[in-house]
Amino acid sequence: MAFNLKKLLGGSDASSEDEYYTLSVEEANREEASEGSKMILLEPRAYSESQQIADYLKKRNTVVVNLKRVTPDQGKRIIDFVSGCLYAIGGTMQKLGDGIFLCAPKNINVQGKMTDEDEPKRGRTKNISEDF
């Protein structure tokens, strides 16, 4: 005597197919980005916090990083790590001020440049690596 749980719960014995649909990679990325990208402000105090920055970027969040609380050596290492992450995901990095960087994933379009405050007449833009 076989006990059939489906009959007991009111289901049918006929095999039912699960409903599913597929998305292309572009559609999935667009859907994920439309859920609401965030802008995250971070002030790392050690190189070990670089992974957290990378995790936010992988989730397609924009990150503003303030490196004023780390030593210049740690700041350079953080920038190197985050630059590698941004390269891998097709993102960009832009310097906003002394030790402050905007890190944006591929889905964020950043326009414009910040000029060096020390030399406003010439409008010289600094290379990111000049600070560290």
From TrEMBL:
The entry's keywords: Cell cycle, Cell division, Cytoplasm, Septation
Membrane-spanning segments: none
GO CC annotation: cytoplasm
UniProt subcellular location: Cytoplasm
Gene3D superfamilies from the UniProt entry: SepF-like protein (3.30.110.150)
GO biological process: division septum assembly; FtsZ-dependent cytokinesis
Main localization of the protein described in the UniProt heading: cytoplasm
Subunit structure: Homodimer. Interacts with FtsZ.
Similarity field: Belongs to the SepF family.
UniProt function note: Cell division protein that is part of the divisome complex and is recruited early to the Z-ring. Probably stimulates Z-ring formation, perhaps through the cross-linking of FtsZ protofilaments. Its function overlaps with FtsA.
Protein name: Cell division protein SepF
Native species: Candidatus Aphodocola excrementigallinarum
